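In full, the data:

***
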Amino acid sequence: MPAAGDPIANPSVPPGPAPARDRITRPTLAGSGRREAPVHRPPRVRFAPAPTGRLHLGGARTALVNALFARARGGTLVLRIEDTDPERNLPGADEAIEEDLLWLGIVPDEGPTEGGAFGPYRQSERGPVYGGAFEALRAAGRLYPCWCGPEARAESGCPGGCGGLAEGERERRLAREPAVPAWRFRLGEQREVADLLRGRVSFRGAPAPDPVVLRPGGRPTFLFACAVDDAEMKITHVIRGEDHLPNAWKQEQIQRALGREPPQWLHLPLVLGPDGAPLSKRHGSTAIGDLRDRGVPWEAVVMALAHLGWTPPRVEPGRDPWPELAARFRPERLSRSQPVYDEGRLLHLSGRWLRALPPEELARRSAELAGFRDRFGGSVPPWWGELLAVCVLSRATLGEAAALAWEILEAEPRRADGGGEILDAWLRHWPESGLPGAEDFKRLSARVAEEAGAAGRALFHPLRLALTGREAGPALAVLAPLLDRAAQDPPRGRRVRSCRERIAAALGAR
């Protein structure tokens, strides 16, 4: 039995009745052939990450499906932090996960920050709850101590036959050796589980050692803590990755032994990379924070996640995707096949969404990029958003567009071979006060073309090199007036050359 100072001491949950062993019969979703229990109340779902690192695409996709499920049915989304493994937890990881979720528009109804009636929402703070469940299971005769030592892992069984000890012998040994290495849950005959995607899944052919529920020292295992928390938080549907499917039937038995009706299960196929291997860093940026830092719009990430195992409705770029996704979401339409993440699709969506955003929104979002937060001081000048709107036409992320815009602002003028006469003409006609807009540039171009007898590339290529130092780039009719405006209202602590200054510098470059 756990000592008073152990994490699950001071039980608060009364013992439950002995486990029910009857099979579960669930009606089917219409037209799907998959089984689902009738829902008599709004569903409660949970996203339960471990704070061992950043939120990645696979976890974000699970969070998205949970959020859509809750929104589509008027339910509740719970965020629970599963931090029962202190050796693997990273400081600040739970706050970073919450921040990434909020950035995606996934707002929990209950959680460590939001609070709620079923808290605490960090497993490290739920010791009394696990203590109560432990005592209830022990009173029901479903737990036994295991002295087999650290070599007896949760999945390997009990080589010493601790589960077969007679009750009297077990109690005498407990009296002699009160420091029990572990406690195990005695499994019943049930070896199958009903899953909303797969129907009934049997594990009768697989080894099924009694799982450890309490580690040495009194810490609950992942299997036990999840089962208890889902029961105590009244979770109606557990939606998670298919790597947890082998745990579901064991957790069902724990919940039934506590006198609780198990939730319905929906195990999502794991996401693959384009090469068919499990998604990893070699397939590109998979951390949500990395995508945010690159300037991928959150809407594009949400749409890319929605495409992983589902055919979402078309959402016009520039609109909030959540209302339309939630209105059309149906769990029976999720695919059983493993979805393939394609960064190219994400970047395509990113570019489309950026091009639909107004300049002021582009400017606001660029101020959140790591490399641009402090470049404008307290306010961002209006021309910056307009310059970004030009640059996103040829870039897939806002970070790339902002980098291009900044390179143009700080570009060293270049002089084209044989372009001196054309630049002289441009300089003679360029207004001292700069160009106000695109129409002014067009009128100026007509005058220079007539005087120099040039057109097309011969007319504009020398000017582009002088203004931007680049062979290609945004349309000069839009770009040139923006450069003159930037020279008149430059970023804090920086000087931006006007177009006249750039042309003059190019003429003096050789």
